[in-house]
Amino acid sequence: MGNAPTGTNEWALILGGSSGFGLATAHKLSEHGVNVCVVHRDRRGAMSRIEPEFDRIRDRGVAFEAFNRDALDADSRDEILTALAGRLAPDGRIRLLLHSIAFGNLKLIGPEAPPDNRARESLARELGIEEARLAEVADEQFAEGVDGVLGITSPPQYAADLFLEDEDMVRTVYAMGTSLLTWTQDVRARGLFASDARVLGMTSEGNEVAWKGYAAVAAAKVALESVSRSIAVEMAHFGIRSNIVQAGVTDTPALRLIPGSDHLKAQARSRNPFGRLTTPQDVANVIYLLSLPESAWINGAVIRVDGGEHISGLSR
């Protein structure tokens, strides 16, 4: 796959491929001669940004299909796979299925504790200035990329009266977690997987660390990892290897939806041994490696792609 010539009939099916990790992976694999099918859900106004990206993939001479449909809808999934099966016929196969769907609820589970501004109050008092003015300056500096003022900036703002409900949790766990199994089962049942296929999902450090507003997504990520392990064991005899990629904090459209994402990014930069965030390209490079024949004995794993961020005790 790594040296596949243009015209090969191996495909990557990417769920959530119009931005972030999915789009970066589509670019990476197409550079190596892999045909790409992207399933995404975007408004018409966003297509002016997305279509040039898709054109770059097409320009590499690979086959490319894009479906602007709801990947979580059963009828849409059936229609997409039926159309893709026709496109692959007679000998095309899906070598890689990447689940990169970012559709989750980011509500708190209950009211927040009162903010602790003692550090800012103490510093303002010692400097002889108004606390409000210090907060204003700190927020301005933080917005300009001065991560060191993180401890005295204004805290992220969350809705004070909208809390996570059962339906929010159910939808998020399916969208970002167990839908991986649904797609894998349907692709396999149609006989569309290659004899050495890879199923990959995306998780984050939120699978172990409790971030505010991340409860539903965290539950989905844990479910995703569990489902992947089951696929790794129960579908191995079909030639399917299933793994999860745990990316470091990455500045993607999905991350920016999280309240306090700027604070998460600042913390990650201060902790990461390389002093920077993970990029979608970093992650796409590893997904490419996992798609190669040489990675066939990696199965049922969670692979961190973060430059050492997860294990680092650095704080500056």
Describe this structure in words.
The chain folds into 2 domains: 10-105 and 165-305, Rossmann fold (3-Layer(aba) Sandwich), CATH 3.40.50; 118-152, no CATH class. The relative contact order is 0.14. The protein has 10 helices and 7 strands. The protein has a 7-stranded parallel sheet with strand order 3-2-1-4-5-6-7, sandwiched between helices. The two termini are 41 Å apart. The model is unreliable at 1-7 (pLDDT under 50). The chain is an alpha/beta fold.
The percent range for helix content is 40-55%
Q: What is the approximate shape?
A: elongated
Series of H and E elements: EHEHEHEHHHEHEHHHE
Largest sheet: 7 strands, parallel
The count of domains is 2
Average pLDDT = 93
CATH topology of the largest domain: Rossmann fold
Please state how the strands of the largest beta sheet are arranged side by side.
3-2-1-4-5-6-7
What is the structural class?
alpha/beta
The total beta strand count reads: 7
Compute the CA-based radius of gyration: 21 Å
State the end-to-end CA separation. Answer: 41 Å
Please give the CATH class of the largest domain: Alpha Beta
CATH architecture label of the largest domain: 3-Layer(aba) Sandwich
User: What share of the residues does DSSP label as strand, in percent?
Assistant: 5-15%
Write the layout of secondary structure elements.
Layout: E1 10-15, H1 20-31, E2 35-40, H2 47-58, E3 64-68, H3 74-88, E4 93-99, H4 118-127, H5 131-143, H6 166-189, E5 193-203, H7 215-234, E6 240-247, H8 253-256, H9 261-271, H10 280-291, E7 302-305
Parallel strand pairs: 1-2, 1-4, 2-3, 4-5, 5-6, 6-7
